[in-house]
């Protein structure tokens, strides 16, 4: 290869520590006359560095949400909600906050098809003036379990069988037959919205209840909802399956192509708000993420818009290394007592520490754009930001004093006994699933598609498991169960 040093614009090729190197395509070897090389030398740092780094290119993939698409953009406040929260980034109409979004399937491994029937994870990092606010949402409004101890079991049942390493309908439905609090989420998963034909055409829901707080100590419980401005876009089950073979990256490609040609997708952002007094009297436990708050009871209030207008320059650096957590909350937003939320606030950063190391917050894609001074988190693998130099690494020093905000305003008082607890399934757990079945009924073809989608998935399961699943659906609707039984037998 000819030297390219004459070029004024091309970068000068170097080794990883900056030493200019002759030819990135050559190795030190014993050369015979006539130009044939053999026997590589151990002194060839370029070759060793290249091979050794290649073997270390992969990092542990996420146990869930491994396959994703990502993009950058911004969140803009469109309506005043300063009566609900004192969060700085929400305090003024027109304020724009840079955002990073990562939209994923849940069960499939990295590289798996992105049109399969699955929940889409919707992770958004908002780089606010008071640190990062993460919204780690899903494209359906409810979840399959409400007791966090069941979370690993749920996910295993949706992935591969321990013996065959195949997805397994018997395992999937056996889990749900015996954990029927998931019925409402199953209704969402098996509608055609479970197979989006474009990520631009999906909604995103906080699922959990959070709190919006104000500096005066007041608060409301909230759920946050992003509704697509593109309209819902779905595949039929048949088309989704076909697309998995034709183009397993269909949804990733669709998002990137739209943004690249300037067709920027956007989502209108809403909040549902509830006072503590309303929460105490409400029909449903608001810390149960298998339930929505019906719109008639708690209407959607618009407050913002998310727009995605930039594709990442590098997938690994910006999307694979991105780490999101519901525990990333700015002043003005706080967690509720939802046990699933409390567990996720541990699990997400724990997964990031495992995948990316203890200093994952220093990676450029995760780093806050506002000032960070956190000198009691020191050292650790891959600490590349100066490590706070000589500053005290212990609390309380008078040698370098700190300013800090007052403690978090505390709103809840809890009294109770510590005991083993696992939620019971009651008839009311089926009421919202029934309501969704009725919503399907208002849209031609949706009930039929739902029955067919479940039947297709249930057919390979063992007969005794099929029977239990059909029985479970009778608690949603006797009609639905009958149609399902007929479809499974057909
Ligand atoms: P409404 O009767 O006021 O509105 C129906 C809701 O269902 C709309 O949000 C609509 O979303 C959504 N929807 C329509 N078709 C489908 C589908 N195939 N899959 C999933 N969602 C669909 O709702 P209610 O609040 O009275 O709740 C009734 C049922 O609607 C609930 O039991 C719940 O399952 C479902 N739902 C409720 C939501 C909530 O936060 N309250 C959110 C989403 C669904 P869109 O406008 O996008 O078409």
From TrEMBL:
Signal peptide: none annotated. GO terms for molecular function: catalase activity; heme binding; metal ion binding. Heme binds at residue 348. GO terms for biological process: hydrogen peroxide catabolic process; response to hydrogen peroxide. The active site is at residues 65, 138. Keywords: Heme, Hydrogen peroxide, Iron, Metal-binding, Oxidoreductase, Peroxidase. Residues 1-24 are annotated as: Disordered. PROSITE patterns: CATALASE_2, CATALASE_3. CDD domains: catalase_fungal (cd08157). Belongs to the catalase family. This is Catalase. It comes from Hyaloscypha variabilis (strain UAMH 11265 / GT02V1 / F) (Meliniomyces variabilis).
